[in-house]
UniProtKB/TrEMBL annotation:
Protein's name in the database: Triosephosphate isomerase
Classification via SUPFAM superfamilies: Triosephosphate isomerase (TIM) (SSF51351)
Top EC group: isomerase
A Pfam entry, by short name: TIM
Gene: tpi
């Protein structure tokens, strides 16, 4: 089928007591294609950092999932004129340590 399925979130750990989170292995077992990482709500309300997003991106690739990496600035950053710097820093940090081939497969959402 041409229909692709995505998940709204994923934890980076393989196993452990992480109530409310879903492991990448579970998504892979359900034949999920994509996973959203770094959504502004996760960054704001759950204090997800670029380090956390980087771990999630790597975990996604380790489990045959295509990451949809969300990036964006806060209203304050936009008003300060730092949007481009913020987004560049997010993408650089979130993709750190990936191969060129992996980085080319990441879907960037702004």
């Amino acid at each position: 089928t041409n229909i692709k399925i995505g998940a709204q979130n994923m934890h980076f750990e393989e196993k452990g007591a992480f109530t409310g989170e879903i492991a990448p292995r579970m998504l892979e077992a359900m034949n999920i294609d994509y996973v959203i990482i770094g959504h502004s709500e996760r960054r704001e309300y759950f204090n997800e950092t670029d380090e956390t997003c980087n771990k999630k991106v790597k975990a996604a690739f380790a489990h045959n999932l295509t990451p949809i990496l969300c990036c964006g600035e806060t209203l304050e950053q936009r008003e300060n004129g730092t949007t481009n710097d913020v987004i560049k820093a997010q993408i650089t940090a979130d993709l750190e340590g990936l191969t060129k081939e992996q980085a080319e497969k990441v879907v960037i959402a702004y």
